[in-house]
Design brief:
Blueprint (H helix, E strand, L loop, with lengths): L6 H26 L8 E3 L1 H9 L1 H8 L10 E4 L1 H17 L11 H10 L11 H20 L17 E5 L4 E4 L4 E5 L4 E8 L11 H12 L3 E9 L7 E3 L4 H21 L13 H8 L3 E5 L5 E4 L13
Parallel strand pairs: 1-4, 2-10, 6-7
Antiparallel strand pairs: 3-4, 5-6, 7-8, 9-10
Helix pairs in contact: 2-3, 4-5, 4-6, 5-6, 7-8
Length: 318
């Protein structure tokens, strides 16, 4: 004889079934939100700067891929070529022991580095323009050789090819970047962040670059960050210390922009607020075919040059 459960019993059974369903859904949600760096939105100082300059420029530099090649694109100009060559020389010093750091003259290293961006590869329209920029680079490195400062001391090298950390696990956002120099302050067992600048102008005080590097240095190595500096090696003999922001405020400000970028990527909405500006127009010209392909860079992007790109509108590598 079959027995029919009472209403109360059915209610209890229904309740437990609901609990099981919610438990399964909760587990699914937790698994679907599990950290996956390959599905995360990666942001850096350069990509955040691109976004703040112009959302359309951000898209063209960081998202767009050429239909025929499937490659992203980049634009080379003389200031970028100069910065790249100087950066290669300076970056190479930090991985060497102090006693071997200056066995080879910086200018000799620069000759080798500059050959990689010589001619059209560096966006130079003629020999005189190339000579002018090469001379500027030589003067910068001569300045460094005369004023070694922190370059002659210990440096900390983060053991990651590209330092990164989860800016927000909840939002699946990663912050990454390469710091030019981490000076080791032995007495305090701390570090000082130094960013080298090859341009003619000083960085705006509201730039997020040093706050981003402050966060990266704090999250990817164990020592306290004592100070933040820019070193304008084109016209200053030593690093210029900058005000150190509150770390929580820096994280909040950077995450706010990163969330804007993530939302734009989800909506696939990248609009120039000026219907075309000096940040996005050079890249629009690449899409239109008004460019010259000169090769590929170290991360596989197709590199183009555009005659007439103003020096002031080009970003710096350093």
């Amino acid at each position: 004889m079959s027995v029919t459960p009472s209403m109360g019993a059915r209610a209890i059974i229904g309740f437990f079934k609901s609990c099981q369903i919610f438990a399964i859904l909760g587990l699914y949600n937790r698994l679907s939100m599990a950290k996956d760096k390959y599905k995360a939105v990666w942001v850096s100082h350069s990509s955040i700067s691109d976004w703040l300059d112009c959302p359309r420029a951000y898209y063209l530099k960081n998202v767009y891929k050429e239909p025929k090649t499937g490659r992203k694109v980049s634009l080379m100009s003389p200031p970028l070529a100069l910065g790249q060559a100087v950066h290669e020389v300076v970056e190479g010093l930090s991985v060497l022991p102090v006693d071997k750091r200056f066995e080879e003259p910086l200018l000799s290293k620069f000759e080798i580095a500059f050959k990689k961006v010589s001619g059209k590869k560096g966006g130079f329209i003629d020999k005189s323009e190339e000579f002018k920029h090469k001379q500027r680079g030589q003067e910068m490195l001569k300045r460094l050789e005369k004023n070694l400062g922190p370059l002659s001391g210990l440096a900390v090298k983060i053991k990651m090819d590209l330092p990164w950390f989860w800016l927000s696990e909840k939002d699946n956002i990663i912050l990454c970047g390469l710091i030019d120099w981490l000076e080791y302050l032995e007495k305090e067992d701390a570090v000082s962040v130094i960013d080298f600048k090859t341009g003619k102008k000083k960085v705006s005080k509201d730039s997020l670059q040093l706050p981003i590097y402050y966060l990266l240095a704090s999250e990817t190595q164990s020592r306290k960050v004592k100070s933040l500096s820019y070193w304008y090696i084109a016209f200053e003999d030593k690093p210029e210390k900058q005000e150190k922001p509150d770390l929580s405020d820096a994280r909040e400000n950077i995450l706010k922009v990163a969330k804007e970028i993530k939302l734009a990527r989800q909506l696939e909405r990248f609009i120039c607020p000026n219907n075309g500006c000096r940040s996005c127009k050079p890249f629009e010209a690449i899409i239109k075919g008004e460019e010259e392909l000169v090769g590929k860079d170290g991360i596989g992007r197709n590199v183009y040059i555009l005659p007439g790109v103003e020096e002031e509108s080009a970003s710096e590598v350093l």
